[in-house]
Design a protein that fits this description.
With 850 residues, this protein is mainly beta. Helices cover 6% and strands 52% of the residues. The protein has a 22-stranded antiparallel beta barrel. A hairpin with a 4-residue loop joins strand 6 and strand 7. It is globular and about 85 Å long.
Length: 850
């Protein structure tokens, strides 16, 4: 907007009787703010309704509504856009929201006068700007502020405050990940309520696994979504590429389709920032870890409407287990183009090469959980496999685009597309379940897989009013095409290995035409397609918010090949042992899911809520006695809770109680012997409490407690119990009904705090400390025996050199330690095998921002 046009607008406002005052000053603080003494202005709440558009127009409209004098040079904001702001909020919150992403903040001077200030080009985009003790409206997919995120997209696919959503949502912010330095998603979730993050223990050995981490949510396995689309990519677990992780506890099928009733995990990839970001780091740790990362974002065009970001990582390390290594290099470039004030397009690409995946074996229960011949002597660095047949490598590629367009103040359009391709090559030996007091039998495998996924989510959404009632509506459709191809070979000559004194001598024999090789091979190909249509209405009247939504899904899976081969014959020729190519035709399934909830926000910050929601998971791959596929697993949950956002503070407290039933659990068909029927039920109930708090500028805290009681509520399945000493079954078979579901701890508690010392004590120095308690879990479905509960401690140090030495501004050193006491513990056991937890991990790095 030209200066003359701004003056004309001012003249019109003055003639209309507005109390607005307007001045034009330079943007430098020395020419404006230095002339007056800053005054503390009490927070004043007002009703604001500013549409998105030209920033100059937005500021003009806001100054009229708030009766503020806003000083700035109009030519400096030409071409910038202001964000839409609507609702009751303080003046500072409203103005911060309008300016978010523009490159400007503001400061108050005497009376009702405000001046714009350009944000320093060296600022790091870690969240919204804090002004006068309040925080502007946060980006719902951004990094959050400190340990607190107040808005989300994951639960509703709309930009919604967490306190207005009637179910449990917990956010792992970027700052929390920076303070803890997790090396995969499971480690990043260690302090999240309702999550058993590392039940597989060293089975992954700390490598950055993605969708195959064995994470348990409210007693059920979980699914991982990246930018709103389900992922099967191993690289989804690379924390160096993530902006935040959200835990949505409870059924989420209305928005996402097939998810378990326990919930889902929503991750946001790094994207171009509104303010420049330049960061590099180098790190080191025990087990020979060396790491380097970079993260750079800046504008391409002068106006900043085209911006880029590129993040990369290179890491190599051993693990706590001998002969198990982990190596990875990856890059994530992205580009955002604000085509016009109403239209934007973001493009992302990713390539990850992981030649060493860090996979170790499991361990016998005798010698870990139970005393062995020489006591608990199986060391964590004992490798129960064959070093010359132990490699796993992954290649992952991804392309994604996000497109948004605003038609008008009532209708918006959004679309996210992603293509993923993953190749895995695996040469490993696994324990086949046979064990004596000191020997294990190994099963060598050669395993090659390729997965290819295409996903698309398209939705229109917007706001409208019926009287004083606000409606935020969403109507959308998504689909997912998933193709899986695998080739699996097994060497029938199984080597044995001493548990307490392993001697490795296995010679691989994976040739179909070589004399003496005895191989079994399997080829398996399948395609999977899911499509859904969903709708949702968020209804808000004063402090009352109601959410109603529903979804119809169609799922189709087809086995395009399932063949078994063997060469166990005299002429060593590969022969077809069976062919099930045509035995599994298309198996279509469909399901309707819905949810409804209500929450009331009191003015003092308390928000009680209640909700009911449903879920579904297809059961494909087996049939009943008539050859019909089983109905999907269907879940339903009732949840009641409280959320308390301390006014004018970054402190969010939550409490939730839940009751989940999942039906169509498969049990024995008592009429048709040898077949199953879907008449079982699993029940999970419990409660969670949590705190996310930036108590002061220098003190941050997260804490949680989870109680989960999950049982087989209805089942006719039976099993014998096992003796924890001999691993032998005993007695008669007993019913699973009423028994606890294995591997799920009933009690979990954690807290983590970070404190930066006052500048008059040790300038720039900070410490952190955390504790994690995990209760016992059962080893099987008839409660034969339990694992032991354990408590682990984490600690860290960080030092900002720039606080003491101006020449070193931007340089920060950090040291993070998990399992500080090096506690020996098992995370999960069956009747004969256990997974060991990770020992003391030490990691330090140097990070430079400019």
């Amino acid at each position: 907007m030209e200066r003359g046009r701004g003056c004309s607008a001012l003249l019109r406002l003055l003639m209309s009787g507005s109390a607005l005052g307007w001045g034009v000053v330079g943007l430098s603080p020395e020419t404006g703010l230095a002339q007056e003494v800053a005054a503390i202005v009490p927070a004043r709440t007002l009703s604001v309704n500013i549409p998105a558009g030209d920033l100059n127009h937005s500021l003009l409209a806001f100054s009229q509504q708030a009766h503020l004098q806003i000083f700035y040079e109009t030519s400096q904001v030409k071409g910038l856009k202001g964000n839409a702001v609507s609702g009751n909020m303080t003046e500072d919150q409203a103005l911060s929201s309008i300016l978010a992403g523009s490159g400007y903040t503001f400061a108050r001077s005497a009376g009702n006068r405000v001046s714009l200030i350009k944000v320093s080009s060296s600022a790091i985009n870690l969240g919204p700007i804090r002004v006068g003790g309040t925080v502007a409206h946060q980006n719902p997919t951004g990094p959050g502020v400190g340990y607190v995120a107040t808005t989300t997209m994951s639960a509703t696919k709309t930009d919604t405050p967490i306190t207005e959503i009637p179910n449990s949502i917990y956010v792992v912010t970027k700052q929390l990940m920076q303070d803890q330095q997790p090396q995969n998603v499971a480690q990043a979730l260690r302090y999240s309520p309702g999550i058993m993050a590392e039940s597989e223990g060293t089975y992954g050995n700390g490598s950055a696994h993605g969708a195959d981490t064995g994470i348990i949510q409210r007693g059920f396995s979980t699914s991982q979504f990246v930018d709103g689309l389900m992922t099967n990519s191993v690289s989804a677990g690379e924390t160096a590429f993530l902006e935040r992780i959200e835990v949505v506890n409870g059924p989420a099928s209305v928005m996402y389709g097939q998810t378990t009733p326990g919930g889902m995990l929503a991750m946001s990839l790094k994207k171009p920032t509104d303010t420049p970001l330049h960061q590099v780091s180098v790190g080191f740790g025990n087990w020979g870890r060396y790491e380097a990362t970079f993260d750079v974002s800046d504008k391409i065009t002068k106006s900043g409407n085209v911006r880029y970001r590129i993040a990369g990582i290179g890491v190599t390390q051993g693990t706590q287990t001998n002969y198990v290594d982990y190596h990875r290099v990856g890059v994530l470039p992205s580009l955002t183009w604000d085509i016009d004030p109403k239209t934007s397009l973001t493009l992302l690409g990713m390539y990850m090469y992981t030649p060493g995946e860090g996979v170790a074996s499991q361990y016998p229960r005798v010698g870990t959980l139970s005393s062995g011949p020489y006591g608990h002597v199986i060391s964590r660095n004992t490798f129960l496999g064959e070093p010359n047949w132990n490699t796993m490598g992954d290649k992952d590629a991804m392309f994604e685009y996000q497109f948004q367009h605003k038609f008008n103040k009532y209708i918006n359009f959004s679309q996210t597309f992603r293509w993923e391709n993953s190749d895995r090559n695996q040469e490993t030996t696994y324990w086949d379940g046979n064990v004596s007091s000191s020997q294990v039998a190994l099963q060598p495998n050669l395993y090659n897989t390729n997965t290819n996924t295409i996903g698309l989510d398209t939705r229109i959404f917007g706001n409208f009013y019926t009287g004083k009632v606000k409606h935020t509506w969403v109507l959308g459709s998504d689909f997912r095409q998933y193709n899986y191809n695998s080739n699996w070979e097994i060497d029938s000559n199984e080597p044995t290995l001493s548990v307490y004194n392993p001697e490795y001598s296995y010679s691989p024999c994976f040739s179909w035409n070589k004399s003496g090789c005895q191989l079994n091979g399997y080829v398996y190909n399948a395609s999977y397609f899911q499509e859904g249509i969903y709708f949702q209405d968020q209804i808000k009247w004063k402090g009352l918010s109601i959410i109603i939504g529903g979804r119809q899904d169609w799922v189709n899976m087809k086995y395009t090949g399932d063949r078994g081969y063997t060469n166990q014959n005299s002429d060593n020729v590969k022969t077809l042992s069976y062919d099930d190519t045509k035995s599994d035709p298309k198996q279509p399934q469909s399901a309707f899911t819905w949810r409804a909830g209500v929450v009331y926000q009191f003015k003092f910050g308390l928000s009680p809520y209640f909700s009911y929601s449903t879920s579904f998971i297809p059961q494909i791959g087996s049939t009943d006695y008539q050859g019909h596929p089983f109905s999907p697993l269907t879940g339903k949950q009732m949840e009641a809770g409280l959320k308390y956002k301390v006014p004018q503070k970054d402190i969010l407290l939550t409490a939730a109680a839940f009751h989940i039933d999942e039906d169509n659990y498969l049990i024995s068909d008592l009429v048709h012997t040898g077949f199953s029927t879907n008449a079982g039920r699993v029940r999970s109930q419990g409660f969670e409490v949590s705190a996310n708090a930036n108590i002061t500028h220098d003190l941050r805290l997260v804490a949680s407690y989870s109680y989960t009681d999950i049982r087989y509520a209805k089942s006719n399945l039976t099993a014998k119990r096992y003796n924890p000493v001999t691993s032998l079954s005993y007695g008669d078979a007993i019913s699973q009904s009423g028994m606890s579901v294995p591997y799920v701890p009933r009690n979990m508690f954690s807290f983590f705090a970070d404190y930066t010392m006052p500048k008059n004590i040790i300038k720039g120095f900070g410490i952190n400390f955390g504790a994690r308690y995990t209760g016992y879990t059962y080893a099987d479905s008839v409660e034969s025996f339990k694992t032991n509960p354990y408590i682990l401690f984490d600690a860290g140090l960080h030092y900002d050199f720039g606080e003491k030495f101006s020449i070193l501004k931007g340089l920060k050193a950090q040291l993070s330690m998990s399992n500080l006491a090096n506690t020996y513990y098992v995370t999960r056991c069956t009747h004969g095998v256990c997974n060991l937890g990770q020992g003391r991990r030490v990691y330090g790095n140097l990070t430079y921002n400019w």
